[in-house]
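<amino_acid_chain>
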Amino acid sequence: MRGTAQLNSTTSSPDATSSTAPNPLTMPPRIPSLPPSLPNLPHLPIILPKRHNSTQTSPAHPPSSESPSRWLATTKSRIGKCIMFGLTRPQARRAGGILEVLGRDWRELVAGRQGFLVDRRRAGLYRHRVVWGEMDSMGHVNNVAYIRYAESARVQWVKNYAVHIDPGNAGSWMETLTPRGDGLILRSIKTFYRFPMTWPDHISVYHKLRALPEPGSDNFTLDVLIVSELRQRVAASCVEDIVLYDYKAGQKTAMKPFMMNAFETAWEEQLESTKSAERKIEWVEERVRELERESWDREGAVEDMGGGR
């Protein structure tokens, strides 16, 4: 009964000790409630969200802190908002043209913007199938699988030099994949996971030089991008520390001129890839901004609720 008395004492009014208060020993337990008398509260108006245009404008250029993958999704959403407010036929054709560029060149806008060379001759893996067995008990692709993706793509990256980029030194490039002469050894790899990728999906994997090696250097660093084709996003990125190793001498060795020359060319192409992607992004930004000013970001704009124009 002590518990019942305490319960009533926490819910009674200040003058509950008066003679009119109920006797807790004769009354059944009551659920705590608010005091019987509450101050009169003013009736506040219910504010509903307006369906009219906002005065907040989108940035002319994507923020530098925004990831390329996020920029792609944000740009698609911005175009979608323009469509929701209604577009004329010419405006709809322009919106379709922008979406066509985003759908066709999204790899360049996501990976090329970061200096990765995304044409088929450069990809380590292109639209590689993610299989069900690569998932773990948590329902997403196992972390170890990403390292295997990077490893397989690195081998193909070297073969691309032998077959497509520098066929004159094909034998030397292919030898780096064997323990017979000067080989490439992975000294360390660091992986950053961006989101839990699941089956079914396809991936494309790209490598690039993090910095141009110094002549005579015995190592270099590669950046790796593992891209989900389904989500059009970076699923993971890696940093690989590569050492040149002379298997015959049993020690590290300096980079050969054929490799240095190829890397110098690749470095210039990486810089141009970034510039090209930035120009395309600027083109997209300008045209999306035009659509915004002509649709929702104008005086009197109202969201199209289904009526014809």
